[in-house]
C-alpha cells in the first residue's frame, strides 16, 4: 500500500499536474460545446466528460464520445466498483501483489501506453509516470496496471458527482453566478474561452471551487483511521485500535470554522477585503480527507473543477426550470442520493442557455485549434 501510495502521489504532485492542463482544457471546451448543443442532455455530457478526461489523464487515451461511455466499450463505474468491493472482502494480506483473483482493468489500456511510449507518440500521463519510475517505486507491471485502474475508477465517479452539485448551487444562488461571470468577463473577455493562464486572476472562481467542495462533499464519510493509542473525546473513552470514520459532511458545516452561514453556498467566505484568497483559514474543507490517506488526486481534482467551472460560466447561463404556467419548478436543496461511494443530488430541472451570440462559434474554433 505504501509503495503504491507513494507512486500515485509522485504522479499527482502540485508541481507535476500542470502536464494535464491541455487535456483538462480540451475536455472543458468540449463539455461547454456539448451543453449548448444539447442542453437537456447535461447529465450524459457530465458522465462523458468525467470518463473521457480521467481516462485521458491516466492513459492519454483519445477523448471519448457518448457511445464510448454507454457501457459497450468500458464497464460502468458502478460495475467496476462492485467488483472491487467484492475483491476487498477476499484478498489475502499475505500475498505480495495486489491481486484481484484474476480481475484487472483492461490490459489493452496499459499495453497501449507502453507501445506509444516506445514509438514516442504519447503525452505525459499518470501511467507514463508509473512506468518511467517503476524501479524507484518498486512496483511490478501488475501493480502499475491495478494502480492506474483504481485512479481511473475513483477519479471518474467523484468527478461526475461534483458538476450536478455545481448546477444546483448556481440555480439556488444566482448572485454567485453573476459575480463569477463578472470576474470572468473582466479578466478573459468574450473573444476566447478561459484557460489556466487566467488562474491567478480569477480568485472568485477559485473560491467557487473551494466552496463547492465544502458545501457538497462528494462523500458523507471519510476513510477509516485507527487510533494509535487510548484517547478521550467529549467524555467518551476511545481505546487504542478503534476504527474512526470522520463525518466529512458535518465537519464541512462547522460554524466555528466557516461561520454562522456554513449551510449556505458563499464563496466570499474564502476572500479577504481586497477580493483575494484568504490565507488565514485553518482549512478550506475536509472533502479530501486527512493525514496519510488524504486524496492523492486533490490537485488534479481542483484543476479539473476550476477549468470546467470557468468555461461553463464563461459560455452559459444556468437558470431554474419552469412549469407549463411559467412558475419556477421547486427544488430540494438538501436532498441527496447515495450511489456507491458518492452522494448525488436528487433529480432537478434546469435551463442551460448561451451567454452571448458568438459563444458557440468561439467554442468551435477552440475545439478546431485542439484537433477535437
From TrEMBL:
Cofactor(s) the protein needs: heme
Keyword check for Iron: yes
Annotated heme binding sites: 295
Pathway per the UniProt entry: Secondary metabolite biosynthesis
The family this protein is said to belong to: Belongs to the cytochrome P450 family.
Keyword Cell wall biogenesis/degradation: no
Swiss-Prot/TrEMBL keywords: Heme, Iron, Metal-binding, Monooxygenase, Oxidoreductase
Taxonomy, superkingdom: Eukaryota
Protein name, UniProt field: Cytochrome P450
UniProt-listed Gene3D superfamilies: Cytochrome P450
GO molecular function: heme binding; iron ion binding; monooxygenase activity; oxidoreductase activity, acting on paired donors, with incorporation or reduction of molecular oxygen
InterPro entries: Cyt_P450, Cyt_P450_E_grp-I, Cyt_P450_sf, Cytochrome_P450_fung
Amino acid at each position: 500500500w505504501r509503495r503504491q501510495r507513494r507512486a500515485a502521489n509522485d504522479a499527482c504532485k502540485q508541481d507535476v499536474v500542470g502536464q494535464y492542463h491541455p487535456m483538462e482544457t480540451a475536455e472543458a471546451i468540449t463539455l461547454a460545446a456539448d451543453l449548448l448543443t444539447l442542453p437537456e442532455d447535461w447529465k450524459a455530457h457530465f458522465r462523458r466528460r468525467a470518463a473521457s478526461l480521467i481516462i485521458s489523464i491516466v492513459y492519454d487515451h483519445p477523448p471519448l464520445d457518448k457511445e464510448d461511455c454507454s457501457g459497450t466499450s468500458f464497464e460502468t463505474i458502478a460495475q467496476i466498483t462492485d467488483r472491487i468491493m467484492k475483491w476487498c472482502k477476499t484478498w489475502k494480506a499475505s500475498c505480495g501483489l495486489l491481486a484481484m483473483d484474476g480481475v484487472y482493468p483492461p490490459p489493452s489500456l496499459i499495453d497501449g501506453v507502453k507501445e506509444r511510449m516506445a514509438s514516442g507518440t504519447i503525452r505525459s500521463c499518470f501511467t507514463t509516470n508509473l512506468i518511467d519510475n517503476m524501479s524507484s517505486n518498486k512496483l511490478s507491471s501488475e501493480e502499475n496496471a491495478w494502480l492506474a485502474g483504481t485512479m481511473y475508477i475513483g477519479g471518474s465517479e467523484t468527478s461526475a458527482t461534483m458538476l450536478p452539485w455545481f448546477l444546483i448551487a448556481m440555480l439556488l444562488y444566482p448572485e454567485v453566478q453573476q459575480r463569477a461571470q463578472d470576474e470572468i468577463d473582466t479578466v478573459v473577455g468574450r473573444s476566447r474561452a478561459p484557460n489556466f493562464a487566467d488562474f491567478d486572476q480569477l480568485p472568485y472562481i477559485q473560491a467557487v471551487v473551494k466552496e463547492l467542495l465544502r458545501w457538497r462533499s462528494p462523500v458523507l464519510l471519510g476513510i477509516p483511521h485507527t487510533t494509535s493509542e487510548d484517547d478521550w473525546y467529549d467524555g467518551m473513552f476511545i481505546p487504542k485500535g478503534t476504527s474512526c470514520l470522520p463525518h466529512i459532511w458535518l465537519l464541512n458545516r462547522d460554524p466555528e470554522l466557516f461561520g454562522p452561514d456554513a449551510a449556505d453556498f458563499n464563496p466570499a467566505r474564502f476572500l479577504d477585503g481586497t477580493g483575494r484568497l484568504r490565507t488565514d483559514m485553518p482549512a478550506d474543507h475536509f472533502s479530501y480527507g486527512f493525514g496519510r490517506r488524504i486524496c492523492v488526486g486533490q490537485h488534479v481534482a481542483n484543476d479539473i473543477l476550476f477549468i470546467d467551472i470557468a468555461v461553463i460560466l464563461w459560455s452559459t447561463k444556468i437558470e431554474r426550470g419552469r412549469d407549463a404556467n411559467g412558475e419556477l419548478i421547486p427544488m430540494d436543496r438538501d436532498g441527496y442520493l447515495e450511489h456507491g461511494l458518492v452522494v448525488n443530488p436528487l433529480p432537478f430541472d434546469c435551463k442551460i442557455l448561451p451567454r452571448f451570440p458568438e459563444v458557440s462559434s468561439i467554442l468551435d474554433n477552440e475545439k478546431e485549434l485542439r484537433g477535437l
